[in-house]
Amino acid sequence: MGELFRSEEMTLAQLFLQSEAAYCCVSELGEIGMVQFRDLNPDVNVFQRKFVNEVRRCEEMDRKLRFVEKEIKKAGIPILDTGENPEVPFPRDMIDLEATFEKLENELKEINTNQEALKKNFLELTELKHILRRTQQFFDEMEDPSLLEESSTLLDPNEPVRIAPLRLGFVAGVIGRERIPTFERMLWRVCRGNVFLRQADIEDPLEDPATGDRVHKSVFIIFFQGDQLKNRVKKICEGFRASLYPCPETSQERKEMLAGVNARIDDLQMVLNQTEDHRQRVLQAASKTVRVWFIKVRKMKAIYHTLNLCNIDVTQKCLIAEVWCPVSDLESIQFALRRGTEKSGSTVPSILHRMQTKQTPPTYNKTNKFTSGFQNIVDAYGIGSYREINPAPYTIITFPFLFAVMFGDMGHGVLMTCAALYLVLRESRLMAQKSDNEMFSMVFAGRYIILLMGIFSVYTGIIYNDCFSKSLNVFGSGWSVRPMFDLRVGGNWTMETLESNKVLQLDPVVEGVFKGPYPIGIDPIWNIASNKLTFLNSFKMKMSVILGVIHMIFGVSLSLFNHLYFKKPLNIYFGFIPEMVFMCSLFGYLVIIIFYKWVSYNARISKDAPSLLIAFINMFLFKNNDPTNKPLYTGQMAVQSFLVVIAVASVPLMLIVKTLVLRRQHMWKRNLGTQDFGGIRVGNGPTEDEAGIIQHDQLAQQSDDEPEAHEEEEVGQALLNAPPSCDQQFNFGDVAVHQAIHTIEYCLGCISNTASYLRLWALSLAHAQLSEVLWTMVMHIGLSSRSLAGFLLLSIVFFFFAILTVAILLIMEGLSAFLHALRLHWVEFQNKFYSGQGFKFLPFTFDCILDGNEE
């Protein structure tokens, strides 16, 4: 089988990089993204590694760029993204980049500091302007002659007027509008009512120079008498963060001061505008290159971080790295090393040396934009073990098909297909937009999965003849009521029969009533039949069992390819063969008798057809004579008894025989040193000593003209296929318990997994019934009237029908069918051959930098 059906062959390689060329070589390897570096310094502290200072410098540059990016976004300037992938700068260019970023950061900080100081001064002058205006209004109101006349009328004219000179002090300031009520209560309580407060709101909100937020404030003036109250008032103002400003006592001084404040505000506004223009120009220039700077800095940081994983030769002239890489990409890796060496100007080439190891390599499955979604579905269950069968190629077909079996509706399938086609046809434009919406990103990543699910749903909708809960009569129904009116063929129906009976049953035995099967799918007459659910239940339940058994048998068959590839004949003789016999003799037989019953019984003798469920139960009970259930064919009980016997006999092969053979194999390895058992090879692979012999023999058989790389490849492959050495402490009990668990799990799983596939039947009926209820309860209302008002009602009803169809039947039901199809693949299908105990190949690549994510 090709690499499409199995993970890539991996090898462990050692890289010898010259110190002056190491940076450029790692850069080239990051561009192609084909190697995974191993950490050769796991016990060395991060801060004690060779290139920790360079990493810190890159982090500092990244911090400065994030500051610049924050300022650009704060100013509302779009960041230019041309999709450019800049080359990694040389180490000597780091000084120039640091100087550029340092200059840009200092300039922006200086501009921000000056701008904040100017805005703070502008705010103070603005608040002072409002204070001078409001206090002038307050004093003008107090000096109003009408108020004086009103106060004089309140005095007794017979009493002599004695006006003592009274001089009140006052303070004026600005406070947040939301603090006015609390501020006023505090003044009243602390000063015991011996102060007089006047306040007025400032109509326009003022800008906070620190945060840039717009805040609402109010002007206040407080009158009091005595220094003691003055101190109390100032402390209260300080506690409420009120800003106090000097205010002249005379009207003339206030007017002169107001004129001076207005002049200063005008000059300050001009300076602020010039400062903002300069800041905009700096940010505009930075926005054009900040993305390229980010990529360069993060690439440099990734390179130095990778170099920290390497060992340094004692001569300090060479770096040694160990990498996992695909065997098929070795030439590309060597070419990248040569290109990096040339770019650095080094005369000493970098060396790639393949190593032999017994460590388990990472699993790497090459994907493209079409297969990546299906591979992610498989990897979500577990990363496949190294070189075992990859379920993803089969999932491309089986996953959308099982989804469509549960979601089968032609109309809904067309809507889903159109939505997926939109994402597929505009994928380049949508990818350029780089949406931050997590839900949209998830749907967009699975656009090809949704496309296939929609196409398969259209197909199953045609088979079910279901389109928005209605059937399409394209070829004409295979049923006819006309012969029932023809007395010449024995019919006795009349028009009175039709008028007096709401439900009538067509007899398929009457000639001409059933003209023949519908050309494709289910006959549309079943959509109006009263026994529609009875018919569909029987059909879909049997269909679910058939599909489930075929799917599971296919999964067991794939395990054979794993056993053959890893050269484990013991698992074939006492694993695959008994499992296949057990599955086929019981559940494979059930599928055969389902088809046999469909073919053997027609309308005339269908009443005498036996129950398959009872026949299957009698098969296990060895019940030969059941008067309630006739046999399907002659000799049925003998065949069924034989199948049950061989199914039961296959269980000890898995449960006991395999364990005994493993024990006997261990004893022979320890005592006799042989692996022959009855003339056949029973071992699961060579021992350590045999692996060494295999290496020697293979090297001896190599011809002199074969390249050295080919010899290393053969030896490495022999070692990778070799299992762990024969353990002298062979624990028979542990092996027996493990094999017993596996056998019981498989035998019981065959039953439970077959029953689990009935979810195909259940969800298919649920989707059809929900669709029918939605049509009956919603759309039927709009179709009940044929007047103009009915047309308007139909438009409104159709709107709600469309919304409910998308929300309930497409999204909710689609998600439900998706999750159930996912479970069928993870549990019922993949557990037959897929262990999923590997670890993923994570190559060193710069692609994540281009996606905007730090590695």
Architecture blueprint of SSEs:
Elements: E1 10-18, H1 19-32, E2 36-37, H2 52-74, H3 94-142, H4 145-153, E3 169-176, H5 180-190, E4 196-201, E5 206-207, E6 214-215, E7 217-224, H6 227-239, E8 243-245, H7 251-287, H8 290-307, E9 311-312, E10 318-326, H9 330-344, E11 351-355, H10 372-381, H11 392-407, H12 410-425, H13 427-433, H14 438-445, H15 447-464, H16 495-500, H17 532-565, H18 569-600, H19 612-621, H20 636-671, E12 676-677, E13 680-681, H21 688-701, H22 708-721, H23 732-756, H24 759-782, H25 788-829, H26 847-850
Antiparallel strand pairs: 1-10, 1-11, 2-10, 3-7, 3-8, 4-7, 5-6, 9-10, 12-13
Task: Give a quick rundown of the structure.
It is built from 26 helices and 13 strands. By secondary structure, the chain is α+β, with helices and mostly antiparallel strands. The radius of gyration is 43 Å and the shape is flat.
Structural class category: alpha+beta
Count of β-strands: 13
Low-confidence region ranges: 147-157, 159-165, 673-728
Assign a percent range to the helix content: 55-70%
The span between the termini is 34 Å
Beta content = 5-15%
Mean pLDDT: 84
Give me the Rg, rounded: 43 Å
Tally of helical segments: 26
For the largest beta-sheet, the strand count, sense and barrel status come to: 5 strands, antiparallel
Q: What global shape is seen?
A: flat
